């Protein structure tokens, strides 16, 4: 992995390692649909003005069907499902289950003939990483509703398919335009639903802060970084951040909540690092990856290209 790829990977590991806590706080007082609307609406309000002034949206609009598909697979469906699931599952268990995204992404690439296929070492790394996450979260397998497991399964599939759509069908388009339109579309879809479910009393300060952090840092900023990461290392390798996310959550628990750092957590961290290294190792040149692809993805695209 290049130095740029390592930096982007590290940023995404942290940025998407903290949402589990904030989602759990938010859905204690507002519905998952309301959270999705607030999160996408605020993020769209940040990105749309930038997209309108800095990039040409015509090539993005020309592929509107794939924009809709990406928005549905990566945002609209998984986010409401995750919010609903976290009302019944512990955040640790959610992180462990979602760590299966790279495995599903690898299977999807193999089934659809994608070029970003994991090597034998890569598959071994994915399995080792999954074992590492299991060691980190320990035996925290509490669930008050078994339906939540099906919801997490939907999230896993969406998170695996979304990056593939972004890489194969929307590659070369300005990420800020793709993300702004995707988020704006999701906000419009959830507007009437959230209007019916709007809380009768003002949410607490903690919930408001959680929504703002999720919208600005974990959505608006995160998707731009994630698009650059996909362009740099490919869609399957990019999803390996789901192995590091629970590790980040564990570190925050130790530093902020004074939780115990157990030997199982230490072993888990080591396995996550080893697994991520193997899974993200690029054994051959992958079309659409590397610094040149990043430059192409980040610059405005001329109409018709």
Describe the structure.
This protein is mainly α and 305 residues long. The chain contains 15 helices and no strands. It has one domain (3-298). 75% of the residues lie in helices and 0% in strands. The longest helix has 29 residues, at 205-233. It starts with a helix and ends in a 7-residue tail after the last helix.
SSE blueprint and pairings:
Elements: H1 3-15, H2 19-26, H3 32-54, H4 58-62, H5 64-85, H6 91-98, H7 101-112, H8 120-137, H9 147-168, H10 175-197, H11 205-233, H12 235-238, H13 241-257, H14 263-280, H15 291-298
Radius of gyration from CA coordinates:
19 Å
Class based on secondary structure composition and strand pairing: mainly alpha
Helix proportion range: over 70%
Low-pLDDT runs of 5+ residues are 285-305
Shape: globular
Instruction: Count every beta strand, where a strand is a DSSP E run of 2 or more residues.
Output: 0
Short summary:
With 305 residues, the protein is mostly helical. Helix content is 75%, strand content 0%.
